[in-house]
Amino acid sequence: EKGGWSSFMAKEISEEPEAVGNTILGRTHDGLVHLEELAPIGDAALKDVDRIVIIACGTAAYAGMLGKYAIEQWARIPVDVELSHEFRYRDPILSDRTLVISISQSGETMDTLMAVKYAMASGAHVLSVCNTQGATIPRESHAVVYTHAGPEVAVASTKAFVAQVTALYLIGLHLAAVRGTLDEAAHRSAVDELASVPAKISEVLEVSQAEIGQLARWMTETQSVLFLGRHVGFPVALEGALKLKELAYIHAEGFAAGELKHGPIALIEPGQVVFVIVPSPRDPSSLHPKVVSNIQEIRARGARVIAIAEKGDAAVLPFADEVIPIPLAGSLFEPLLAVVPLHIFGMELAAAKGLDVDQPRNLAKSVTVE
Ligand code: BG6
């Protein structure tokens, strides 16, 4: 039931805080993550893993990309992210030291199911992240970590995405604990950061809804939108672009901001709308000034820049046409906040164009053919 919302998607975006909160619930003990669901694989095998391959399609694959940053940083295991439908067609190198993690909201996506079956047959350990109890993919896997986003009806995934990222972060922390790669204080502070995400998403929803609605109503004639992000902002850019394609039927592309000068900058002409996901100025890496200088470069060529930036980030103000503020968070946790305005934007632009937000043309919620 839509319960007063204009669409299932509007309702589901409003449920993003709970999707994260409920996915964390019961999975921490004394401030540390422990996933009982991983017992079928077992600590000895998890200690022995030398490589992780994440397989998924669409939005779930972008969640997987974020999982890569977190798992590599915390558990120090190399992670590859592969589209399910590419995975098994090139004789991938798997062993009993490989952990394959599948991600699927529905648990029925045929491309991902076939990849899971292939991984099982090859002797790898297979863990699935799924939002649907008892679905086929978790039944075909060694272990499952359910996301608790609640049923998702709108075809384009929103609350399941943030829940998937949350589950992957929990898996990263569990692996780090098993392998002793993260000191306890850092583990606790990551858990605190994650626990603070739901309230911060609520703040983003409150602050950005009206501004983005207005932005979308101005953009109903727009033909092309670009999204730029760097490090964990890159998968967010890809996700923002996918939502615009799926929902508003607008040609949209997400780029790694560092790649701009290697090609995409040629696309910038006066009036081109570019969303930029800006890293925190507090981040110890030097990415913030680099992304700000990307903004200056595209602005100088006439782009219309919409920056998603930490609130109080004064450096972007002179160069952005619009700034959508997000609360302060550690860099791995920013994507869970920055993605929210992009979900709203895709939905609002589709609605402003008079399109069916929940049932975009040509798409199905779960694709059960290969
Ligand atoms: C696509 C949907 O068909 O399948 C996407 O349009 C979704 O929104 C993708 O991300 C994967 O679906 P699932 O159920 O495997 O997560």
TrEMBL record:
Role summary: Catalyzes the first step in hexosamine metabolism, converting fructose-6P into glucosamine-6P using glutamine as a nitrogen source.
Molecular function via GO: glutamine-fructose-6-phosphate transaminase (isomerizing) activity
Protein name: Glutamine--fructose-6-phosphate aminotransferase [isomerizing]
Record field: catalytic activity: D-fructose 6-phosphate + L-glutamine = D-glucosamine 6-phosphate + L-glutamate
Location relative to the cell: Cytoplasm
The keyword Glycoprotein appears for this protein: no
The species this protein was found in: Antiquaquibacter soli
EC number from the UniProt entry: 2.6.1.16
Lineage of producing organism: Bacteria, Bacillati, Actinomycetota, Actinomycetes, Micrococcales
Record keywords: Aminotransferase, Cytoplasm, Glutamine amidotransferase, Repeat, Transferase
SIS domain residues: 42-181, 215-360
